[in-house]
Amino acid sequence: MIGYVTLGTNDRDRGAKFYDALCGELGVGRMMENEQVIAWGEPGGGAGIGLTAPHDGNPATVGNGVMVALQANDEAQVRRLYDIALANGGTDEGAPGDRGGGFYAGYFRDPDGNKLNAFVMATPDG
């Protein structure tokens, strides 16, 4: 399965502030940092997220159709993550709400334009 996802940035400090805030709400911090990449998560835990300038030296751009989904604990945390994203330079792509079939999500973009969502799925028994 997925070990980590890496997203490109054109402003490392701005991006780090954004992901420090989001990942802090999810209960994880930076697990790796060097001159090229910052990664958030827990070694041996679920999938992590990394932020880096592109290795080819060209500007970072977003992938059309690419999205990173952050699993929340409940609907309240989905709303908090969405609010944190917007408060830290993110932009709205769809306010938190019921998307049907027990899927509750809020959509946003990071300061570089990468699309993310925060979501929670209802359990089969409720």
Explain what the structure shows:
- This is VOC family protein.
- This protein has about 130 residues and is α/β, with parallel strands linked by helices.
- The protein has a single domain, classed as 2,3-Dihydroxybiphenyl 1,2-Dioxygenase, domain 1.
- Helix content is about 20%, strand content about 35%.
- It has 2 helices and 8 strands; from the N terminus they run E-H-E-E-E-E-H-E-E-E.
- It has helices spanning about 10-25, 75-85; strands spanning about 5-10, 30-35, 35-40, 50, 65-70, 90-100, 105-110, 115-120.
- It has a 4-stranded mixed beta sheet, covered by helices on one side. A 4-stranded mixed beta sheet has the order 5-8-7-6, covered by helices on one side.
- The chain is globular and about 50 Å long.
- The two termini are about 25 Å apart.
- The model has no long low-confidence stretch (mean pLDDT about 95).
Please outline what is shown here.
With 126 residues, the protein is an alpha/beta fold.
CATH architecture: Roll
Major sheet strand order: 1-4-3-2
Helix content: 10-25%
> Which CATH top level class fits?
Alpha Beta
Domain module tally: 1
Number of helices: 2
Q: Give the strand tally.
A: 8
CATH superfamily placement: 2,3-Dihydroxybiphenyl 1,2-Dioxygenase, domain 1
Q: What Rg is obtained from the alpha carbons, in whole angstroms?
A: 14 Å
- N-to-C SSE string, H for helix and E for strand: EHEEEEHEEE
